[in-house]
């Protein structure tokens, strides 16, 4: 039997002229009548668990939904679960269920981008596909999945990437794991490897996760300037735990100057099952992946473009958008306008070395590694990086990462490091990333256990 939990969202909505907007009016029974033939897929049981937009979910409601799914998964006769859900926080719900529940019973989460009053209402088709996925024997053991526009995504990698398109969901760092074609589920990949489910006691802790990157409101630098339109010191003092992409002295400042109860660093990491070494021909001696920015361009000139001019026999590449038309590119520098996330691994694999350049504000804060460092390290590609305070906290210079302050040092690395040493530097960086990743995982687990004990 497939148990269907209806929670509301756009899939249950139609236009209400009196209310001046869309309202969740369709019950589960009403929606099922609009999907002819769905009852032939499997025996179904319908539950109207809620009827509200996703933006009305809070921590308590989200936890209550998780507990209901957990109880259903353990009940006799249920071999699959479908959840209809608003798309605003659908990815958060999918992630929570995938990380905290037993994966043996498949949970297919779906919704709609258009209401029943709109042309091209996508709700019935998505609901039929979700039932098909939940009922398939091939779905057993895959845990929570997002089913949308004919595609199936693992719950822990699914993300809403478009605000209006019916094809609104993707998995930028993994891609779909399957699809529904002609009424059948066809899986093309295994879901990401997962350990034992996490076992938090609740979702009661308030956690602020504030990235320390250029241009964001509420960053550490803006707080230090007294510019806090988004996040004020008063709000910081109200959180039980403050997670920051910047570590080192920034954590002390958060606690002493802004009153954070507990400030901890939560650095970037990548999935080593996705970012891993790949055997490809080396197309470039040195490559760089990054969007143009005024503060990084001088270092790009110094650490890649000037070496390319001085080494005409070498092959170089710069990938990323928004570079001005007046950049003087040497003839041996290839330009790639965009490398999608699922192609990052191949881009790194095609280089002898890859260049890392850090944003100015992150250099000023220190202890602020970018995700590109960890992507390249996980792929086993040796990294040449600019220098900044705290870098040696993550990778050991000379052994796991190469530091360059000028074009001459970059050229020396390219010309003088033996091939065996080059490979060893990349492999040591990958091993260090695995240790850093385990530290992140242990930190998250210990934090959950701490809040559970409160």
CATH topology of the largest domain, anyone? Rossmann fold
Considering the protein shown, what is the CATH homologous superfamily of the largest domain? Answer: L-asparaginase, N-terminal domain
Shape: globular
- Enumerate the spans where pLDDT stays under 50 for 5 or more consecutive residues: 214-218
Radius of gyration: 25 Å
Average residue-wise pLDDT? 89
Beta-strand percentage range: 15-25%
Helix count equals 13
Count of discrete domains: 3
Mind telling me which CATH architecture of the largest domain this is? 3-Layer(aba) Sandwich
Number of distinct beta strands: 21
Q: What is the helical fraction, as a range of percent?
A: 25-40%
What's the arrangement of strands in the largest beta sheet?
4-1-5-6-7-8-11-12
Q: Class of the largest domain in CATH?
A: Alpha Beta
Task: Report on the biggest sheet.
Answer: 8 strands, mixed
Could you give the distance between the termini?
Answer: 39 Å
Q: What structural class do the secondary elements suggest?
A: alpha/beta
Tell me what you see in this structure.
The radius of gyration is 25 Å and the shape is globular. The protein folds into three domains: 186 residues, 3-Layer(aba) Sandwich (Rossmann fold), CATH 3.40.50.1170; 60 residues, no CATH class; 154 residues, 3-Layer(aba) Sandwich (Rossmann fold), CATH 3.40.50.2000. α8 crosses α12. It is built from 13 helices and 21 strands. Strands 4-1-5-6-7-8-11-12 form an eight-stranded mixed sheet, with helices on both faces. The protein has 454 residues and is of the alpha/beta class. About 1% of the residues have low confidence.
